[in-house]
Amino acid sequence: MVSGSRSGGTPFSRGHVYQILTNPLYAGRIRHRDKVYPGQHPAILDPVAWDLLQERLAAGAARSRGRSNAAERSPLVGKLFDETGDRLGARWAAIPTCSPARSAR
Prior knowledge:
105 residues, alpha+beta, single chain, two-stranded antiparallel ribbon
Protein backbone atom coordinates (compact mmCIF):
# COMPACT_ATOMS: atom_id res chain seq x y z
CA MET A 1 0.00 0.00 0.00
CA VAL A 2 1.29 3.47 -0.90
CA SER A 3 0.81 6.29 1.54
CA GLY A 4 0.97 10.02 0.90
CA SER A 5 -1.03 12.56 -0.96
CA ARG A 6 -2.05 12.26 -4.58
CA SER A 7 -1.56 15.03 -7.08
CA GLY A 8 -2.35 15.47 -10.72
CA GLY A 9 -5.24 14.05 -12.68
CA THR A 10 -6.57 17.49 -13.60
CA PRO A 11 -6.40 19.24 -16.98
CA PHE A 12 -3.78 21.90 -17.61
CA SER A 13 -4.98 25.46 -17.17
CA ARG A 14 -4.16 28.21 -19.68
CA GLY A 15 -1.49 29.45 -17.29
CA HIS A 16 0.18 26.04 -17.14
CA VAL A 17 0.22 25.71 -20.93
CA TYR A 18 1.62 29.23 -21.31
CA GLN A 19 4.35 28.49 -18.76
CA ILE A 20 5.33 25.33 -20.64
CA LEU A 21 5.31 27.08 -24.04
CA THR A 22 7.52 29.92 -22.81
CA ASN A 23 10.08 27.75 -21.00
CA PRO A 24 13.45 28.06 -22.81
CA LEU A 25 14.58 24.66 -21.49
CA TYR A 26 12.71 23.00 -24.36
CA ALA A 27 14.85 24.95 -26.86
CA GLY A 28 18.13 23.86 -25.25
CA ARG A 29 18.52 27.07 -23.26
CA ILE A 30 18.53 27.96 -19.59
CA ARG A 31 17.03 31.03 -17.89
CA HIS A 32 18.68 32.75 -14.94
CA ARG A 33 16.79 35.74 -13.57
CA ASP A 34 16.12 37.98 -16.58
CA LYS A 35 18.63 36.45 -19.00
CA VAL A 36 18.60 33.33 -21.17
CA TYR A 37 21.81 31.44 -21.85
CA PRO A 38 22.71 28.48 -24.09
CA GLY A 39 22.23 25.28 -22.13
CA GLN A 40 24.44 22.22 -21.93
CA HIS A 41 21.49 19.94 -22.65
CA PRO A 42 20.04 18.96 -26.04
CA ALA A 43 17.00 20.86 -27.29
CA ILE A 44 13.67 19.01 -27.30
CA LEU A 45 12.20 21.56 -29.73
CA ASP A 46 13.94 23.15 -32.69
CA PRO A 47 15.23 26.51 -31.34
CA VAL A 48 14.08 28.33 -34.50
CA ALA A 49 10.55 26.94 -34.09
CA TRP A 50 10.60 27.91 -30.39
CA ASP A 51 11.63 31.47 -31.30
CA LEU A 52 8.78 31.69 -33.83
CA LEU A 53 6.37 30.46 -31.15
CA GLN A 54 7.56 33.18 -28.77
CA GLU A 55 6.92 35.82 -31.44
CA ARG A 56 3.39 34.49 -32.02
CA LEU A 57 2.67 34.42 -28.29
CA ALA A 58 3.91 37.99 -27.89
CA ALA A 59 1.83 39.18 -30.85
CA GLY A 60 -1.33 37.61 -29.41
CA ALA A 61 -0.73 38.73 -25.84
CA ALA A 62 -3.49 40.64 -24.09
CA ARG A 63 -3.08 44.37 -24.04
CA SER A 64 -4.24 46.68 -21.30
CA ARG A 65 -7.59 48.32 -21.97
CA GLY A 66 -7.07 50.88 -19.23
CA ARG A 67 -5.74 54.39 -19.53
CA SER A 68 -2.14 54.38 -20.64
CA ASN A 69 -1.41 57.72 -18.98
CA ALA A 70 -2.66 56.73 -15.54
CA ALA A 71 -0.01 57.43 -12.92
CA GLU A 72 -0.81 54.29 -10.93
CA ARG A 73 -3.33 51.51 -11.46
CA SER A 74 -5.49 50.44 -8.59
CA PRO A 75 -4.52 47.01 -7.22
CA LEU A 76 -8.19 45.94 -7.38
CA VAL A 77 -8.73 46.77 -11.07
CA GLY A 78 -10.16 43.74 -12.85
CA LYS A 79 -10.66 41.78 -9.61
CA LEU A 80 -14.06 43.02 -8.43
CA PHE A 81 -17.34 41.95 -10.06
CA ASP A 82 -21.01 42.62 -9.37
CA GLU A 83 -23.75 40.00 -9.05
CA THR A 84 -24.15 39.81 -12.86
CA GLY A 85 -20.46 39.19 -13.48
CA ASP A 86 -19.67 42.69 -14.78
CA ARG A 87 -16.39 44.22 -13.69
CA LEU A 88 -16.59 47.02 -11.15
CA GLY A 89 -14.51 50.08 -11.86
CA ALA A 90 -13.62 53.34 -10.19
CA ARG A 91 -16.91 54.88 -11.32
CA TRP A 92 -18.72 52.78 -8.70
CA ALA A 93 -16.87 54.50 -5.87
CA ALA A 94 -18.91 57.69 -6.30
CA ILE A 95 -22.30 55.97 -6.46
CA PRO A 96 -23.99 55.64 -3.03
CA THR A 97 -25.09 52.15 -2.04
CA CYS A 98 -28.49 53.32 -0.81
CA SER A 99 -30.93 55.93 -2.03
CA PRO A 100 -30.61 59.53 -0.73
CA ALA A 101 -34.06 59.26 0.94
CA ARG A 102 -32.88 56.33 3.08
CA SER A 103 -29.56 57.94 4.03
CA ALA A 104 -31.40 61.09 5.27
CA ARG A 105 -33.16 59.16 8.04
